[in-house]
Amino acid sequence: PAPETVDTDWRLFLAVPIPAEVRARIGALIERLEPEGWPMRWIDPENAHITLHFLGDTPPELAAILRMALPSVVAQHSAFDLRTAGLGVFPKLKRPRVLWLGMYGPAHRLESLYNDLGDTLADLQFDIEEKPFSPHITLGRVRSSPNTPIRTLPEQLRQAIDVMATEGLADPRRALPLPVEEVLLVRSHLEPTGAWYEVIERFPLAPREGD
Question: Which residues are the active-site residues?
């Protein structure tokens, strides 16, 4: 990456943080699956999160506007709980590109938060994806390489999804709680050794209904 200056754009995204217990399970899943030798670029479990909106390269002065504009949007939503579910694949098993851990619970509340944030971002001239929101935690992305055969990968993934459910690492019946209590504005720093994340601001949701 080129050296940063005061005028360097910030690579930003909005996300929901993941509690330590869920990050530990993600680490266990990756540790269990990585020896399979798939052409997969695995995440660092400590960086795991639920992405809401990827903002891309953003001028620092616009980042300052986000810090002022987003607190009131997030605070219109009360905190709530999701829980871990099983493994899945985007866009589909026959053509895998992303392996993810799913979630159960009131996903419509997360979608409502996503939509309200998207409306505000659009007003600020950010390009917002139009595809349906599908909350998930990315575990790994398939690497494209002409020297790496992936013809057998769909069947291997299907078997692994079944095994991980049987072993309890990705079984909805052994779910872990995933509280949604704040939204993070995160800056991604790209280094030769990989990306590392810096939390620029935290936007809390309103207290839980009934608290």
Answer: 49, 136
